[in-house]
Amino acid sequence: MEGVGRLIVSVIMLTYNREKFVSRAIKCVLGQTFKDFEFIIINNGSDDKSGEIAEQYAATDSRIHVIHRERGNIGSGRNAGLDAAKGENIAFVDDDDLCERDYLEFLYRLASENNAEISICGAADKVFNEKRVLCPEDALIELLWREKYNVAFPAKLFKASLFDGVRFSETSKYDDIELMPRILGSANKIAYHGLPKYTFVRHESNNSAWTTNHNLLDAETLAEYLAVYRSRTIWLIDKFPLRTMTWRYFEWSFMLSMVEKISRLGLLDCEKQGEMMASELAAHAKDFMECGLILDYESKWMEQYVLHEFS
Questions:
Q1: Are the CB atoms for 7 and 38 separated by under 8 Å?
Q2: What pLDDT score does 6 carry?
Q3: Read out DSSP for 236-266?
Q4: How large is the angle between the packed helices 219-239 and 271-283, nearest 10 degrees?
Q5: Which letter, b or e, does each residue of 145-158 get, where b requires 16 or more Cβ atoms within 10 Å of its Cβ?
Q6: Is the pLDDT of residue 3 over 50?
Q7: CB contact burial 180-209 (16+ within 10 A = b; e otherwise)
Q8: How many whole angstroms separate alpha carbon 187 and alpha carbon 166?
Q9: In 10 A of CB 166, how many CB atoms?
Q10: Separation CA 268–CA 208 (nearest Å)
Q11: pLDDT in tens, 10-37
Q12: Nearest to 208 by CA among 232, 169, 177, 253
């Protein structure tokens, strides 16, 4: 499996003020059964000991390259890693997560055996012993359902060529929502096997902590989510126009879930946005309700939170 005169995988990890977690994450990568990789750690302007810890490990393993940079968003940090990467494939890990010892080997074998440009494994919270080889459109639809894998860049292995001329947003906090569909949509073949090889560790300082504690949702966060969802929908419709109603359904589904949470939890900071989304849903109610994808609970929410108010 190991290459001769070529580097197979570049592992990219961004760290920012994770001195309690980063050592554990580094050990997970260094303990991989697959050995032919470089490990690029980007210290994204930490003011704790995260960068020092990374340097300590770099002194003991020549595969580690530490890049120290001024504080930027997640996307700009990952871009620094992509710019430095020399591997034929790219894998991402987050500095507070865990991966199994065969994480890289599993993903590399899965891609190689299926001649796929992207391979995806299961995660501890999404375990399916199912193997599929998908075309881009089917992979995107599976992604947007969020049942088997999500928009996060870990738990996947990518051909490095997919990032040629493509980079993460350097202004958005949630650039993965927009970029992941573009990467999947540019591949020829995606291999998925849902055995869990990665663990996303959830805690209050996660960038997406509000998705598990909805009381943390505020107007600024919601505005940015709505913007990237809209941008994603526009790109998907342009790329795969025959599935236009499918792409619109997933944006409407997100909006409806936000309307329900704003109303049920009394999130006053987001009240005006909730009214705006409810108004838009009402305007497209017929298409949404008759698209063939809407779930039973969504039909009930439409009646309760949207149609009741705009009838």
A1: yes
A2: 74
A3: HHHH-GGGHHHHHHHHHHHHHHHHHHHHHHT
A4: 30
A5: eeebbbbbbbbbbb
A6: no
A7: bbebbbbbebbbbbbbbbbbbeeeeeeebe
A8: 13
A9: 12
A10: 20
A11: 999 999 999 999 999 999 999 999 999 9
A12: 177
* DSSP assignment letter at 302: I
Alpha-carbon span 26 to 39, nearest angstrom: 9
> CB atoms < 10 A from the CB of 298, how many?
18
Three-state DSSP class for 24? helix
Ranges assigned E (strand) in the chain: 9-15, 37-44, 64-69, 89-94, 98-99, 118-123, 131-134, 156-159, 190-199
Task: Match domain 9-199 to its CATH number in 3.40.50.1000, 3.40.50.720, 3.40.1700.10, 3.90.550.10.
Answer: 3.90.550.10
Six-digit token string for 62: 């020549």
Amino acid in the structure at residue 3: G
Distance between CA atoms of residues 85 and 81, nearest Å: 6
Element (H, E) at 305: none
DSSP reduced 3-state for 126: strand
**SS3 category, 44:** strand
pLDDT in tens, 201-260: 986 655 555 666 777 889 999 999 999 999 999 999 999 999 999 999 999 999 999 999
pTM above 0.90, yes or no: yes
Copy the structure tokens of residue 230. Answer: 């809209």
Q: Is the pLDDT of residue 1 over 90?
A: no
Whether residue 4 is predicted with pLDDT greater than 50 in this model: the reply is no
Domain boundaries, given as residue ranges, for the chain: 9-199, 210-310
